[in-house]
Amino acid sequence: MGGRDKVVDSLRGIACILLVTLHVAQNRWGEADWLEWYGDTFIYIRMPLFAFLSGVVYAWRPLTDVSHYGTYLGKKVRRLLIPYAIFVPLIGLTQVLLDYGTPPPSAIYDWFLYSLPPYWFLLATFWVYAVVALMDTYKLLDTKLKMGVLFGLLLAVNIIFNMQDATGFLQFTSAVYLGLFFVAGMAATRFGWKNIGLTGAWIMTGATVALFIYTQFAVNGVWAAADNQRQDPLGIALGIAFPLAFIAFGRSNNFLAWVGGYSYGIFLLHPFAVAATAGALKIVGFQALAPSLVIMSITGLFGSILGVIVLRKVAVGRIMLGERGRKPAPKPVEAKAAEAA
Q1: Do the Cβ atoms of 15 and 86 come closer than 8 Å?
Q2: Which end of the chain is more exposed for a tag (fewer CB within 10 A), N or C?
Q3: Which pLDDT belongs to residue 201?
Q4: pLDDT of residue 166
Q5: Alpha helices in 191-330 (DSSP H)
Q6: What CA–CA distances, in Å, run from 122 to 49, 216, 276?
Q7: Is the pLDDT of residue 241 over 60?
Q8: CA 68 to CA 65: how far, in whole Å?
Q9: Which of 189, 81, 186 has its CA nearest to residue 135?
Q10: 93-97 contacts: CB < 8 A, separation 24 or more?
């Protein structure tokens, strides 16, 4: 699929804003009840949305030939595992040296085996790509029935077993959870959800609103279908219904799409931008809650974008971002014109 999809990029922009603001809120946890409300409310959407969009993008260019599986995995190693190996120790050292966030385990090898937030997502997503792509090459996911069976199995495992409290060794359990949303996004693209029409879009919007209201009961301790969001079928449904409704309407926003174009770099770099800003505010003695949250959110978002722009200027920076060290050759003018047409 040539070019960029502004609807998908707009959803990426929403995911980035939720990611940054939720981590900012966690930095000032306990200073206001509404901070925990905000975190608990959007935990049903934040990382599920990233996983859903990963499935959408995979379905644009699925792996169909098993002989290319090794090459495909090599690209995912470059895209996911090399940044994982770089940023996990960097965030661990940042937390230790700046006394920022939750202290990491004392054993450094545990940083890699059990991950440090938010980089667990990279390792878990790698396993999802590895399994789904292999299944795809054997045509195990080429019909709605086959996709439905896989989704049903993943859903059953997540509901029956407490994946949130399970060991985080190599993030296998998180991969099972993220796989739900990845498969949903993949199926939505593969089977033409964007063409569902306005009636389907409004129905899914109604479902999203109803599910959001339900999660408010869970967040506020009124009633919940499960003890945690990874076992809650209605919470899982919200993480899928929201992007389905957004895609069905086919609407986009230029600002959100622009932010979404930097989504991977924002994911990788925002913890450092937020930590640096929090440290600077602490040094100058600025502790006013609401203004601090706004400042940290803005610098976390736009500081990360600036970081991406700077890192892309050098080979080592591009490698850190999961990109090729060597810049791709510029496209001929004719190719650019054809792509834009």
Answers
A1: no
A2: C
A3: 97
A4: 59
A5: 198-219, 233-249, 254-260, 263-284, 289-311, 315-320
A6: 14, 29, 23
A7: yes
A8: 6
A9: 186
A10: 94/271, 94/272, 94/275
Neighbouring C-beta atoms of residue 325, cutoff 10 Å? 12
| Structure tokens, 155 | 């859903």
- pLDDT confidence of residue 103: 79
End-to-end CA distance of the chain: 14
Helices (H) and strands (E) in the chain, counts: 16, 0
182 pLDDT band, cuts 50/70/90, is: very high
Residue type, 266: I
Residue whose entry in the numeric block shows the structure tokens 């440290």:
279
The yes-or-no verdict on residue 341 having pLDDT over 50 is no
Give the residue among 155, 121, 150 at the shortest CA–CA distance from 226. Answer: 155
Residues 252-264: b if buried by 16+ CB within 10 A, e if exposed: bbeebbebbbbbb
Q: How many CB atoms lie within 10 A of CB 299?
A: 21
